[in-house]
Structure formats: C-alpha cells, structure tokens
Amino acid sequence: MDTFKTDFLIIGGGIIGLTLARELSSRRPDLKIILLEKEERLAAHASGRNSGVIHAGFYYTPDSLKARLTAEGNKLLTEYCVRNGLSINRCGKVVVAKDGKELEMLRELKRRGDSNGVELEMMDEDGLAEIEPNARTYRYALFSPSTSTIDPIEVTGHIAGGLKGKAEVSLGEKFVKRAGENLIETNRRRIEFRHLINTAGLYADKVAHAFGAGRRYALIPFKGLYMEYKDSSIIKRHIYPVPDLRNPFLGVHFTKTVDGRVKIGPTAIPAFWRENYKGLSRFSLSEFFGILSHEARLFLSDSFSFRALAFEEVKKYFGGCMREEASRLVKKIDPSGFGPFIRPGIRAQLLDTEARSLVMDFVVEHGQNSTHVLNAVSPAFTCSFSFSRLVVDDIEKNFRFFNRVLGAVPPF
C-alpha cells in the first residue's frame, strides 16, 4: 500500500470539512490539503439532507458558541450565496405561541436574540396577519427577517468547485484505522499527515477515539422525517412553534424551500444505527447494540426527559401526529394535502456519557497533531463559515506545527 504525504488531512466531505479546507487554503495556499469522503459524492449525509434553512441565531443562550457563530454565519453564508449567484429564498420566519406559557418563552427568545445581535420583531396578531396571513398564534408572534433558505447541495458543490487546484478531494475513500502517530490507513492507501482534522459527522466520535480524544462522548443518531404539502401557497414564510429549550430540537414546523415548495417536519426519532435511513439499509449489528445500550440507559434514567421525547417522536412515524402538530400552527389547512414522507436525514447528536445528557453546543477537542469536531450540531450549516474560521484560528494559536509550517519548515 502506497504512502502519501500531506500537511492537512481532513476526514469528512460535508459542509464543515469543505469550509475548513476552504479556510485553510485561503490562508496558506502553499500547504498541501487532502480531504477524504467515504461516499462517492460530497454532502451525502447531514449536509445534503438538512432543511436548507439559514438560521438567524436567537434560540441560543448568549454565552454559547452557537450564539456567537450563528449570527455571523448567517451573514457570511447569505453574502456567499448572493455574491456567487446561488439560489436563496429570503422569506423570513415567524415563531408562534399556542398559550400564555409559550408566550413567556417567546419573550425569552426575543431577549436572547437581542443579546445575540439578531434583528427580531415582536408583533401582535394583526401584525402577523399582514406578513403571514395563515399563521396562528396566541396574542403575539416573533418575526425573524434574516432567516432564509438555500439549496445545501448547490452550496456544498460550489464550495467544492472552489477547491480545485487548492486541495485534493478524494471521493469513495474511507478512514480505516490509525496506523501510526501521524499516519492513517484508508481503503486505498496510507497517508502521513502533519495535522488531521476530523469532521466525520456520524462517525466523528469513532475517529476521535482512535486518536485518544472525546472519550467521554458518543454520538447517537436521531432520524428527521419530512412531508411535502401539495399547495405551496398555504404559507409565505417559515412557521415555527416555540421550542422546548431543554432539548436541541425545534419541533415540527413549516419550511418554505428555496424553490417555494412547502414541507413539514422534522421528527427527532431515536435511530438504531448511524445511517438508519430506510429499512435495513446500511445496518450495522455493532452499532445497533452500542446505540441501543446508550438509549436504554437514557430511557431508564429518564435523563433530560428522554422517555417522553422518545414516546412523542416515535408516534410521528405514523404521520398523523406530524400532520396534527403542523395543523396547530396555521388557521386553514387541507388534511388531504400532505404527501408521503420524503428523503430523510440523520442528526448526529453528541451524548455526554458521564453526565447522561445531550450536548447542546459545538464541541471541538484536540489530540496530538489532530483536531476533532465532535458536535457540529444544528445549525452547523448556517455556522459553517464562521465555525471554520474559529477552528483554524484555534489551530494556528495552539499548535507549534502550524507555526512551523508558517515559518521555516516547507510543506510536504
């Protein structure tokens, strides 16, 4: 097996891996970068299966990385799409309440948005009717004008196109094992690197563990299902419910896609293996038992009310529960207007196995000559440009390797 050398090796061809390669190559065009993607195409998993919503950044507590990165990421990604003529639907979003208790949470979202520097408007029912006539709320709603929709496949493809001549993007090449201190083995070759960046998504914990990082964490998958609604004129903007801020999921909502279609979802159904998209496709017995073990412990201990979450989400497999939840957000809807489930996604959600809790914020850990993006959880697509800047800043600041390459030591 041949051995190749590179300065940076990135594992994972989703939006985070691609934007990191872009950030590295823009700072140091003389460095050699190899990006590996195990599938035959880029963004085959979470990056290409998400809703396409560019979030504004008002859900997150002001002290979180999400709060810091989402508002900036929204601006950077929006500007990137506009500057490069990529599809974008700048439709905005309304968050609606169903009762007085949710009204208090709506006000909390407004406070968070103000702290995070996000443009928001609290409006009464009359004001809501002017911008989204079919939305239903209790007294007040929150309007976010900077929430948009893009085409994730188009965006990732454009970023990858910009890497030509700057980085080697290798498709169908899978990380197999760590073969030495600065050496890995793939299904094709051995690669010696100066620094490895792990953006492996659903398998980020496995790669990190091979390098001695992220030992207290494990990734557990949640399946996101959507349904399309046949009448695209039913809404003008995204309509979201007030979320339960104790968990990282935003609840079933209406999404206006980049091309003007309407879909409802997603679910957050606990999955039983990492790529559990349909039937027994990509089934892994070892993953099944490992994930089932984590989920069973969460169920028995009822950590972060996992039991109620699991019961509530599993009901959505039957569709009727999803349709009912969506119907509460609007004044008029045709019950026969919902189509079947469309292409699902899997959310890679980090679990702190010691605290038995879902990790709500981004998590990055460093090993020896390696950096591991363990929790690139939603809204990672929105944050991709700002997050990649942060990660590369951190590598530049903390690793002698990077400084040596910037100085006298030439790249491979």
Percent of residues in helices: 25-40%
Mean pLDDT: 92
By CATH's scheme, which homologous superfamily of the largest domain applies?
FAD/NAD(P)-binding domain
Global geometry? globular
User: Briefly, what CATH class of the largest domain?
Assistant: Alpha Beta
CATH topology (fold) name of the largest domain: FAD/NAD(P)-binding domain
Strands, count: 23
Q: Report the portion of residues in β strands.
A: 25-35%
Low-confidence segments, ≥5 residues, pLDDT <50?
Answer: 406-412
Model description:
By secondary structure, the chain is of the alpha+beta class. It has 2 domains: 169 residues, FAD/NAD(P)-binding domain (3-Layer(bba) Sandwich), CATH 3.50.50.60; 137 residues, D-Amino Acid Oxidase, Chain A, domain 2 (2-Layer Sandwich), CATH 3.30.9. Helices cover 33% and strands 26% of the residues. The protein is built from 12 helices and 23 strands. The strands form 5 sheets. Strands 1, 2, 9, 10, 11, 12, 22 and 23 form an 8-stranded mixed β-sheet that branches. The protein has a 4-stranded mixed β-sheet with strand order 6-7-5-15. It has a 4-stranded antiparallel β-sheet with strand order 18-13-20-21. Helix 3 crosses helix 11. The radius of gyration is 22 Å and the shape is globular.
Features:
412 residues; alpha+beta; FAD/NAD(P)-binding domain; D-Amino Acid Oxidase, Chain A, domain 2; 2 domains; 8-stranded mixed β-sheet; 4-stranded mixed β-sheet; 12 helices; 23 strands; 33% helix; globular; disordered C terminus
